[in-house]
Amino acid sequence: MKPKILWDALPVVWLQPKGKDEIKEGRRYRCPLYKTSERRGTLSTTGHSTNYVLPFLIPTQEHPTHWIKRGVAMLCQLDN
Asked: How much is the average pLDDT of 30-58?
């Protein structure tokens, strides 16, 4: 992460479906993916916001709490 950079592009990501029992979280940051930068929306029956898409497990050299404290999230689109 570069200092004073608010938005940065993520490289192309290949999503490979797996069962829950096959996924080992390890030392990866569970980064939330949202549709827009408004991290809110109507709560659905799952308890998640309708703006929330899914979590991405991102490898990190830092402890995951480092990224949690900074509020790091991924967005599908920036505001207009």
From this structure: 80
Q: Which domain holds residue 29?
A: 24-75
34 within a domain of the structure (yes/no): yes
Other C-beta atoms closer than 10 Å to the C-beta of 54 total 11
Give residue 65's pLDDT: 92
Strand 52-59 to strand 28-34: parallel, antiparallel, or no bridges (unpaired)? antiparallel
In a domain, 8, yes or no: no
Counted domains in the chain = 1
Assigned domain for 33 exists: yes
Question: What is the rounded distance in angstroms from the CA atom of residue 55 to the CA atom of residue 67?
Answer: 14
Question: Read out DSSP for 37-78?
Answer: S-----B-TTSSBTTEEEEEEEE-SS-HHHHHHTT--EESS-
